[in-house]
Amino acid sequence: MSCEFCQKSILKRIIVSSKSIIAIYDQNPVSKYHAIIIPKRHFRSFFEIKKDELIEVFEILKKLKKIILKKDKSIKGFNFGVNLGKLAGQIINHCHFHLIPRRINDYDLRLKKKKTNKFFWIK
């Protein structure tokens, strides 16, 4: 299968997992420790998720938050979301959720990689 999230190599990147869900750090993070929560079963849309998988997503989410907060005390909040479709920013066609740590005066790290000085600052 050509899905990046279905490749066996992803298993080396797991931070925390359950029966049907894994969590990894994003390779193109918005902020340090930006993580992705991924169902092991391949499906594209959030609207296809099964009830038991969704329960596990939220169990993993809570564990992941604790792990990340232990690593960085400067985190003051989180964004949690899912992109549904190409126009909404979904790049990989496998349902996944983003947990993005936020800090005072942080910015989108992806903009720094593009060598632009147009940062999006959080005040």
3D structure, described in words:
This protein is an alpha+beta fold and 123 residues long. 21% of the residues lie in helices and 23% in strands. The protein contains 2 helices and 5 strands; from the N terminus they run βββαββα. The protein has helices spanning 51-71, 109-113; strands spanning 14-17, 21-25, 35-39, 75-81, 97-103. A 5-stranded antiparallel sheet has the order 1-2-3-5-4, with helices on one face. The model is unreliable at 118-123 (pLDDT under 50).
- Poorly predicted spans: 118-123
Which structural category fits the helices and strands? alpha+beta
Strand order across the largest sheet: 1-2-3-5-4
Shape: globular
Helix and strand element order: EEEHEEH
* Beginning-to-end CA distance, first to last residue: 42 Å
- Tally of separate helices: 2
Number of strands: 5
Report Rg: 15 Å
